[in-house]
Write a structure and sequence with these properties.
Blueprint (H helix, E strand, L loop, with lengths): L2 H7 L9 E5 L19 H13 L4 E4 L4 H8 L6 E3 L4 E3 L5 E3 L4 H16 L5 E4 L4 E4 L7 H14 L3 E6 L2 E6 L4 H9 L8 E6 L4 H10 L3 E5 L8 E3 L2 H22 L1
Parallel strand pairs: 1-2, 1-10, 2-3, 10-11, 11-12
Antiparallel strand pairs: 3-4, 4-5, 6-7, 7-9, 8-9
The chain binds magnesium ion.
Length: 259
């Protein structure tokens, strides 16, 4: 058995009828790339997500720091319930989108200030998401501390804002928005409600999701190394793909057994 097989063998058996699935995207369903806009989910994996979604009657959501429009592009043709920008925008299973926005004056004041500061640090990248700002420094690790200091100064000035640290990125987002809250919001609604949540993610932002599902006796799965509140672990994105394949097979076999 490979190491990956050993790891996912330790995950509990899951059921299409009982469980609800929450997936982070970057670093979980898609390998991290040097540039965030070159990230992709392989076509076969998009198809598997679509299959899993129908096997669990639509109780599958993407929960990401990316805006929903990008998630739809990455997961195409699947259009799933989704929490974008850590839940600042959330499209429920009925297709209705709920948005938390930054006050217009805050967003308008911040963007030129952030851009001017980041222009001084070649290789850093400011991404304005409407309801949040992502300050990327993957291509400029020597400016990590500068970027972190800048983000910290901003949230000190605007108490309605909070920081979200990630892999080579720090985000400035509305206070009270996180993946745990987004997951709980889905779990209050059909077809998620009454099911056992499964949350799969790789980064610091996913810890709030892990805590939320742990509190609901759910299944939290951390991808990769590093300390985590998650109860289970898979080594990498490839292991997630292998686990997805196995999971779909198991659920289909269960369904045949019940016929
Ligand atoms: Mg991630």
């Amino acid at each position: 058995m490979t190491q990956a097989a050993n790891e996912y063998a330790s995950l509990p058996a899951l059921s299409g009828g009982l469980h609800a699935f929450f997936f982070d995207v970057d670093g979980t369903l898609a390998a991290i790339q040097p540039q965030p806009d070159t990230v992709f989910i392989p076509e076969t994996v998009c198809q598997q997500l679509q299959q899993l979604s129908s096997l669990c009657h639509g109780a599958l959501a993407l929960v990401s720091g990316r805006p929903i429009a990008q998630l739809d592009g990455l997961a195409s043709p699947l259009i799933a319930p989704a929490a974008g920008v850590y839940g600042a925008e959330r499209r429920d299973a009925q297709g209705e989108t709920h948005r938390t926005t930054l006050a217009l004056n805050v967003a308008e004041a911040l963007q030129p200030q952030l851009q001017a500061a980041m222009d001084c640090w070649p290789g850093t990248l400011l991404e304005a998401k409407g309801m949040a700002f992502a300050l990327h420094y993957r291509q400029a690790m020597q400016h990590e501390q500068d970027v972190l200091d800048l983000a910290e100064q901003v949230v000190k000035r605007f108490p309605a804002l909070a920081l979200q640290l990630g892999k080579c990125v720090v985000e400035i987002k509305p206070q009270g928005i996180d993946k745990g809250e987004a997951t709980c919001a889905f779990m209050r609604e059909a077809p998620f409600t009454g099911r056992i949540p499964v949350f799969v993610g790789d980064d610091l932002a996913d810890e709030k999701g892990f805590l939320a599902v742990n509190a609901m006796q759910g299944v939290s799965v951390k991808i990769g190394q590093g300390s985590s509140q998650a109860r289970y672990r898979l080594p990498d994105v490839e292991a997630v793909y292998a686990w997805l394949e196995l999971l779909i097979l198991q659920i289909k076999q269960d369904n045949v057994g019940k016929e």
